[in-house]
Fold:
Amino acid sequence: MARRALKAINWAGMAELIPESEKNMLATLKSKTDQYLRKVNEFPESAPKIDWPQYKKVISVPGMVDTFQKHYESMQVPFPADNYTNLIEAEEKDITGRIEDFKRQCDQSIANFKAEIERINNTLPVEEMNMEELVEAYPDFKPNTVEKPSIWPHSPEFQPENIAKEKVESAH
Structure:
């Protein structure tokens, strides 16, 4: 039976990727992993050799040591089957694909946000725009002038509903 080596774990790389609030859990995991590895390394690579001639000298029953030796050397202890590595690798591949998709979506969002910031930086400040320039610069913003007209200077603090709220708040 050969000793199975663990894959090298990049603990420093993992520590950089996780939030500060979970670093103590990572330290606990690393400690438990190191303890497990130390315990595994305490045992020898293979079972100690049995000194069969010494037993033949000491035991007087004829053929007993030979029978034990024959049975011992023919005994095969199967190593447990690995049923989980393929599942773990498939899940890792799936998660890696989802992470790459998420990164692409984030990169696309960042590019969109940078383009929007560039567009906003290249337009006039809203305070200096008239209503036509505002609607042209922000096509999604459409003031509802029929159902809810705004009063000049068209800023929120001068609108009747906000003036009424300020009077009620100042009365309390």
Summary: The CA atoms of residues 32 and 38 lie 10 Å apart.
